[in-house]
Amino acid sequence: MIIDDRHYDIIIIGSGAGGGTLAGCLSSKGHSVLLLERGEAVEAGWQSRPRVKDEQWFGPDGDPFSPQTFYAVGGNTKIWGAVLERMREKDFTDLPLQEGVSPSWPFDYTHLAPYYDQAETLYRVHGKAGVDPTEPSRTKGFDHSPRAVMPFLEELREGLERHGCQPYDLPLSWSDNDGDPVGDAELCGLAHADSANLEIRHKAKALRLHVSPSGREVKRVEADVEGEIWLFSSDLVVLAAGAINTPAILLRSGNERHPGGLSNSSDQVGRNLMNVQITSILQRSAAPNSGRYPRSYGVNDYYWGDKNVTFPLGHIQAAGGVLQDALFAESPPVLSLVSKLIPNFGIKRLASRTVAWWAMTEVLPEQDNRVWLNKEQIRINYLHNNREAHDRLVYRWIDTIKSVEADPAIKVVTSEPVHPRGEAPLSVVGFACGTCRMGEDPSASVVDSTGQCHDLDNVYIADSSVFPSCPSVGPGLTTIALALRMAETLDKRLEA
Ligand SMILES: Cc1cc2nc3c(=O)[nH]c(=O)nc-3n(C[C@H](O)[C@H](O)[C@H](O)COP(=O)(O)OP(=O)(O)OC[C@H]3O[C@@H](n4cnc5c(N)ncnc54)[C@H](O)[C@@H]3O)c2cc1C
Questions:
Q1: Contact 291, 322 (CB under 8 A)
Q2: How far is ligand 1, taken at its centre, from the CA of residue 241, in Å?
Q3: Is residue 13, in this structure, part of any structural domain at all?
Q4: Within a domain: 200
Q5: Distance 157 CA to ligand 1 centre (A)
Q6: What is the span of the domain harbouring residue 409?
């Protein structure tokens, strides 16, 4: 075991949306930061890659699967769709869903709004305010206009508008790097880092946290760095390893004083796992397209309900090209749908004849949906809830696209009796959240409203595991906004 002789102000574990953003901010404010990242830096221009093949997690029946998660500087933001949406005002409140009440956050939208502003600027979000009917209040528009979408999608958008929908340009993060155009936590979150204050250790997998005799303070972080065990020390420690690995580290850090894992007096570490329900729905395009283009516009007309439906249904997104969008490329069960659309075609030809949509519906936190450890194995017990709302959204959207297909003015899609659709399987865990939830009650939550662990004086969590509820829009921008907010808190604490 090697003991690092340097002492840092702060150690951050994980360099994704939360950790990368936080490390960039705190190092630029003059604090010494050690960033432990289990992956490596990836080449510029690289945006999609097979699932993690060297790791397996285990599902409810003990069956192994390869998770769609990416270990690298930037984490999952290296393969994300870069759609950076704000949660809506009501998403922060007790929100009745069809199957129960989605719990409130310890603060409201107005509290997070200034950090959303900062997050959009930092991640160079391109968008257009004032079109999406569910858009939360904003004090300013986007700094960058949306980029042009593919012409066939533009024609489809006009068709949707004629049929009463209100499609809006998805807010998308675009970097200023021509070689690596999609914004991510490496290119944007770490963009303003002060390299004099930031040390990044690659291939450094944090294993466990070692606590002081009082049990209230973490003294060392144990990590496997390229096969050697190291111990690192700092004043503050931030876990930002994502909603599966952060609880795994806390559970693995158990000792005599904390037999159920660190910061787990509430028994909530790993529980309340939420992963938005995602179904892909396919249309057949009349003319070939490249199969390689980014996500473009969304429809939130059913976000809060529908005719005669008073509970939220969710969000619709025009998916990226089937050959580019990692949610497809990494998910054979979803990809195989394409072959149902046009049998006996090669995959590239299939992709070029497809227009794909994502239907996304939030789920409720449940105690039994959880991450736990079986020795060193990561086990995931998970069953979606709020399913009827999701089914309604899917059928509603199929009705909508059928009516557009029947419109003689629309030439870019063909009218089909069947629209293949498929749910993302358990391995598509990229939107996971909730496993170390935030709340004021230490007996029912893991961190307080600042992200500090209730049970530990110097440990914080800065990733999507702190979400008390799971919005139907992606968690990326909210994770970034929370990290920017935490940067202020930690800066003050370190300055004090
Ligand atoms: C294919 C795909 C598409 C997506 N598209 C969108 C989208 O369009 N919009 C959106 O809002 N969200 C999207 N998401 C979700 C989004 O990427 C996540 O919500 C976001 O990245 C979560 O940030 P995080 O900081 O919690 O975790 P991550 O960004 O996953 O970062 C975790 C980091 O911790 C590192 N790590 C893990 N374990 C350890 C360890 N033991 N020691 C050291 N380092 C460790 C990882 O390598 C990684 O760098 C997508 C996800 C995927 C997979």
A1: yes
A2: 8
A3: yes
A4: yes
A5: 30
A6: 2-41+69-495
